[in-house]
Amino acid sequence: LQFAKWLPEDRRQHSYQLALFATYCWKYGWGKSGSASTVLSKVSHIAWHHRRTLGYNVGLLPGHQLAITGMRRKDPSSKPKSPVTSAILKCLHELLDFAVAQHRVIWGASVLGFFFLLRRSEYLAQGSRMHDYAIRRADVKFVDARGHETRNLHDVTSVILQFRGSKSDQFGKGTSRELARSGHRWCCPVLAALYLVRHHEALRIDAGELLCKVDASHNLQVSDVVRAIKAAAGRAGRNPQYYASHSLRSGGATALFNAGFDSLAVKLFGRRKSDAVERYTRISGQLTSRMASQMLQKPALHQV
């Protein structure tokens, strides 16, 4: 079609080109057709790179967006993976050998993935590939009860993750999320993040490198986490084939629902995008201060 590499700023023009791109990907893909969700993910990546590199936003006009909604209706329904439970997390904790650095990083990453409802692209690598918006060491901050930054283990009460973007953040605005200690030493987002940061610092690598590093030259892989989750699910008496990397994100969301948090709070905390809701609604500190502890309070925890 002989279009330029970068989309024009004109909204009608770039929406038209994005719609053509989306239709092609959905129908033909690269050797096979793609799902509408995958296509929308690609559109979001394009938008994010334009915002980050060129400083302007691109996106689909309502009419083109409606066409892609129609693609979703034609896609065959997929069976979602099962959510990780606190019982499976306990089994994972028992299976890992904490004398091995890779296992310690797998645990820290899994705990963050569960509590912060992370997408795998936000903290894990696939081969040599990782996204520009994946969490780096520089994106992690620890604060005390007064909100002052600290690294003292006894003073730290909360961890704050700065998100540079995500596949659903079409405008690359980024956001941050904060969680307090869970009250359980074996499974706590604050302690997990603190370990990952200290391990990262011990490797003597730049703070701009991916947070979940096994060593100076190896990023933690999606496949490493999936393998561990499947093994833990099997140990817990579940069918391993029903679990994958997304099981941590869905498990955290399920735990929040079961702990009594409403769907809007979970949607906002998990950064599930609805631009209108995201723009006008904020999560209160009172809410996030008790999230982590209540995610582990259900009967599943006390049975193991």
UniProtKB/TrEMBL annotation:
UniProt signal peptide: none
Q: Say which domain of life the source belongs to.
A: Eukaryota
InterPro entries referenced in this protein's UniProt entry, alphabetically: DNA_brk_join_enz, Integrase-like_cat_sf, Phage_Integrase-like_Recomb
Tell me the GO BP annotations in alphabetical order.
DNA integration; DNA recombination
GO terms for MF: DNA binding
User: What keywords would UniProt list here?
Assistant: DNA recombination
| Record-given protein name | Tyr recombinase domain-containing protein
